Amino acid sequence: MTKSYDLIVIGGGTGGNGVARMAANAGWSVASIDSEPHGGTCALRGCDPKKMLIAVTEGVEWAENMKGKGLEAQPSVNWSDMIAFKRSFTDAMPPRIEAGLEKAGIDVLHGEVRFTGPDAIELNGETLRAKHFHIATGARPMTLNIPGEEYLATSTDFLELPERPDRIAFVGGGFIAMEFAHVAKRAGAREVTVLEMMDRPLGNFDPDLVAMLVEATAELGVDLRTKAKVAKIEKQGDEVVVTVERHDGTETITCDLVVHGTGRVPNIDGLNLETAGVEYSRRGIKVSDAMRATNPAIFAAGDCADSGLNLTPVSAAEGRIAGKNILGGKDAREIKYPPIPSVVFTLPMVATVGLSEAAAREQGLKFDVHFEKTEGWYSSLRVGAKHTGFKVLVERGSGQILGAHLIGPGAEEQINLFAMAMGAGQTANQIKAMIFAYPSYASDIGSMV
Known about the structure:
single chain, alpha/beta
């Protein structure tokens, strides 16, 4: 017999679990399906486990920065212990999440899903039907279409490595590559190489601050090569050889591990969305501001949807909108994105919110640029930070903050304060008038605007 539900949620991560719970709490019959253990990329294979590795390597960075300042320490990273520390969190999450869903009355299922019609899916050879579907399948590493691509390790593989390779290359210069390159080098890897096709890494971040990060990355000992296109990857015994095309010719890099760090794309390939009447593109499932797909019975949120930024808090916000509209039976709610901050958790961290300088100029806005390197500021001096700075764009006349871009310790929290101020419409003068606890990283903000 075909089993039917009021709602089937496809994807057991941030963009899906909240919707499933909302419907179950309303008394609906709900199934939650994931091909992996529930928890999603952020909790199990992304943000959270990555930050645990970074937390360990922060100890190495702290000792280096405070050398000769009274701290006598020579820390090193025990890779297997670090991975065990990470697993103390990630191993516990799926059973906890799945138990919570089941306690709410949700059927927790596993397997690959494909639509067989506008209101039906196939799961493990069984047909399931639903009045409504919500898709939150996230993203996957993009296909590069280069010879030897099968030898690339994923970011998930990196987070599960039982031992640290001595020579690692990262293909791409985005979040994943830069963050993991910093982790690997501070963990003791002898050779760490980042291969970026463009003329600089982290293309969505402010170029002046990225230049400062590039300098810090070189000082760390990471070999960052730009305008470097990977042509092929070959396996030679226990080694991997990467052929790279650059403007001055071809070169090869021999290493123990090559990691895919070029970015991610919507994880929707196997869903057979055409059969369900769902339009999509390479950017994801086409959705309205109500998160409704072209099949009105289907909603989507997060990295699999062609909507906002691919960040965990964004998927949660989109999921809440989708859930309210599914339950309400009409598009009463529409997503409205506040200023959304983003952070690269290298050491030093780089953070951004709002418009870049180039985007503000393209929009014809009139603004002042407050740009300064702050290695001489007290907040940098007291922790031995050498690569710190900010760039804040203040609109002329209104005093509104158009964009804020930061590098250095504290940036991950300072950027949230900028996002709050921008969302509340606070002006530069209002921020200057705030009285912050001192000394703190937050107390620097008034001097940045």
